[in-house]
Automatic annotation (TrEMBL):
Belongs to the class-I aminoacyl-tRNA synthetase family. PANTHER family: ARGININE--TRNA LIGASE, CYTOPLASMIC, ARGINYL-TRNA SYNTHETASE. Keywords: Aminoacyl-tRNA synthetase, ATP-binding, Cytoplasm, Ligase, Nucleotide-binding, Protein biosynthesis. Pfam families: DALR_1, tRNA-synt_1d. This is Arginine--tRNA ligase. Its EC number is 6.1.1.19. It catalyses: tRNA(Arg) + L-arginine + ATP = L-arginyl-tRNA(Arg) + AMP + diphosphate. GO terms for molecular function: arginine-tRNA ligase activity; ATP binding. A motif ('HIGH' region) lies at residues 120-130. It comes from Hufsiella arboris.
Length: 588
RNA sequence: GCGCCCAUAGCUCAGCUGGAUAGAGCAACGGUUUUCUAAACCGUCGGUCUCAGGUUCGAAUCCUGAUGGGCGUACCA
């Protein structure tokens, strides 16, 4: 439809001797209650046409109809010029473009982008919040790849620190040598169990100390368990063999557990970074910043940056004792990633509680004169909350990722069996189908919402399988495949009609927007755009499916055309869903 | 205190760079299957787009302020 803009520019120039730019033309899809497919808003033109919006619209319409062969007719409603294009034009768009097997592929942009996501702590299993992160990161990676970027998916594993020592210490004290095998627990769940035990015992000690008259703050600092954990961290940093060996053992349990969860989620990574390797990085950057006068040193030896001119605060970048803080490592890690890959852009998928941190991080790198700093982007997403409030691992008020996944698959199994749709499936096929549908429901549920919005999840209300959901779209795909199979569809038999029904036209137009939507989703880092688009396509197709008959169409040309239209729709649905990390079944 | 984010139907969400009478799903009610998969389709009901100003031919969308909610503002990560 874009050619209309160019033609309108010519028309405005011819009629009103005014040279406009492309951006000055407001072209949109005609609302369905009016006739036409393309609408130009004519209000802005009245400034130089010196005529009413209606008259201006009519003059433009006349001109365009005379000069543009694809235009069939036009009508003017107030300041809106509605243009109907000939069916020939839409059929041509379908033939040349939409129906092609590679439709929706965008040529390489020659840009490399890193997407860092997941980045778990190795002291507890993944919960629903992590699931949102993982699905977002994976989906954004797929969308960027579809939009022609070279994508590197990375995962910065937080495998060291005081929280890890807490689990280790609790296991050492209360574990009696328990292993994932002996406990019959996934490794990450076993380690998480001891993280919770630590917290429970720690609280006990705090209460005891408080009874002895200590203030809360002091009790928290002096409880023997926390002291031991801190000591263990020091031993870890000193390379103490026993501590390191316990650490390796427990982390390996966790990794085995994560691997299984990642697999079920269908996410993957090209590059792992581990904080145990990167936590000392960044000190050379501190020196660089001091040399450049970006940072300054206080009397106690701590290093700071003054960001008050940018509306932020003074920020510590190195402790007085010379050790790193969080941002020190992140400065170093950012440099490391750039040295490794020389990417043009780098996206961090991290929750919105760290908005301030990333603002500061990117600003500092920019002030240090890093040329690549402008390519850094924080994909900030809202927390997943329960009706009872925030999820807290230590207090056990979390929706566990593995549990949720299993429940979704189980629900999918029940629904499918109730509907009696498993005829002709063997056991493996059934399992694959249930997994596909259950995960489709979960993933779609999480991805259809704009990332930055917070998400409320009520464990008592199961995730829907009907309506605006993943399974609805999957069902539409399976339905199409079923028709195509019945017809023994072959692309080579394609034929095209002389005219279109309204629904066929709507479907072609919407399918024609695919590329534009991929670009928009990539630019906004928003899977929600793809999710809502694919839903619109599925909905339109179902309307078409009910209104028109395909296999029994009177005219063989129409039949073959509708088959090809169905095929093309399935193609877009599949590609779109794959960008969300959702698979679509051949039948269900 | 200061900073950032959010607010659209009873509930969950769309609404493209400002454009026509603000759209879906769920829930409720009614209809559609001798015909390609009813996880579907069609219809009814449901709105002061949190509030108050402003900019504009035109505001859910932009600006200012207020209210409500979330987050941050650590020599934690």
């Amino acid at each position: 439809m874009d050619f209309i803009i160019a033609e309108t520019l010519k028309a405005v120039n011819a009629l009103y001797q005014t040279q406009l730019a492309e951006n000055d033309i407001n072209l949109q899809q005609t609302r369905k209650e009016f006739e036409g497919q393309a609408t130009i808003v004519t209000f802005p033109f009245t400034r130089f046409s010196k005529k009413s919006p209606e008259v201006t619209g009519n003059e433009l319409g006349e001109y365009l109809q005379q000069h543009v062969s694809q235009i069939a007719s036009f009508n003017v409603v107030k300041g809106f010029l509605n243009i109907s294009l000939k069916d020939e034009h839409w059929i041509d768009l379908f033939k040349q473009n939409v129906s092609q097997a590679d439709y929706g592929s965008i040529p390489s942009k020659g840009r490399k982008v890193m997407v860092e996501y997941s980045s778990p702590n190795t002291n507890k299993p993944l919960h629903l919040g992590h699931v949102r992160n993982n699905l977002l990161g994976f989906s954004v990676s797929e969308i960027l790849a579809a939009a022609g970027y070279e994508v590197i998916k990375s995962n910065l594993v937080n495998d060291r620190g005081i929280h890890i020592c807490k689990s280790m210490l609790a296991w050492q004290k209360f574990g009696n040598g328990e292993t994932p095998e002996s406990a019959g627990l996934k490794g990450d769940h076993l380690v998480g169990k001891y993280y919770v035990i630590f917290d429970k015992e720690y609280k006990k000690q705090i209460d005891e100390l408080k009874e002895k008259g200590l203030a809360e703050e002091q009790a928290k600092k002096e409880a023997p368990l926390i002291r031991e954990a801190q000591q263990m961290l020091q031993q870890w940093e000193a390379g103490d063999e026993q501590v390191r060996s316990l650490w390796s053992k427990m982390n390996s349990w966790v990794y085995a557990g994560f691997e299984s969860t990642y697999k079920k989620l269908g996410v993957s990574f090209d590059k792992f970074y581990y904080e145990s390797n990167t936590y000392l990085l960044g000190k050379d950057i501190i020196q660089e910043g001091l040399d450049k006068g970006v940072f300054f040193k206080k009397d106690d030896g701590s290093v700071w940056i003054d960001l008050t001119a940018d509306g932020l605060d003074e920020k510590l970048v190195l402790r007085a004792d010379g050790t790193s803080v969080y941002i020190t490592q992140d400065l170093g890690t950012a440099q490391l990633k750039y040295n490794d890959f020389r990417m043009d852009d780098s996206i961090y998928v991290v929750g919105n509680e760290q908005d301030y941190h990333f603002k500061v991080l990117f600003l500092i790198l920019d002030k240090l004169g890093k040329s690549w700093a402008k390519g850094l982007y924080h994909l900030s997403y809202g927390m997943v909350d329960l009706p009872s409030g925030k999820m807290k691992s230590r207090e056990g008020t979390v929706v566990d990722a593995d549990d949720l996944i299993n429940e979704m698959i189980e629900t999918a199994r029940q629904r499918t069996e109730e509907l009696g749709k498993t005829e002709g499936f063997n056991t493996d096929e059934k399992d694959a189908l249930y997994r596909m549908i259950g995960m489709g429901a979960l993933k779609y549920f999480l991805l259809k919402v704009e990332p930055k919005k917070r998400l409320l999840f009520d464990p008592n209300e199961s995730i829907d399988f009907q309506g605006h959901t993943g399974p609805f779209i999957q069902y539409t795909h399976a339905r199409i495949k079923s028709v195509l199979n019945k017809a023994s569809f072959n692309v080579d038999n394609a034929s095209f009609p002389d005219e279109l029904t309204a629904t066929e036209r709507d479907l072609i137009i919407e399918l024609g927007n695919f590329g534009k939507l991929i670009e928009a989703a990539a630019a906004d880092h928003s899977p929600a755009i793809i999710a809502n688009y694919v839903y619109d396509i599925a909905k339109l197709y179902n309307r078409f499916y009910h209104e028109e008959t395909i296999l029994k169409a009177d005219d063989e040309r129409v039949k073959n055309f509708r088959l090809l239209l169905s095929f093309s729709t399935a193609n877009v649905i599949k590609k779109g869903m794959n960008m969300l990390g959702i698979e679509v079944p051949e039948r269900m």
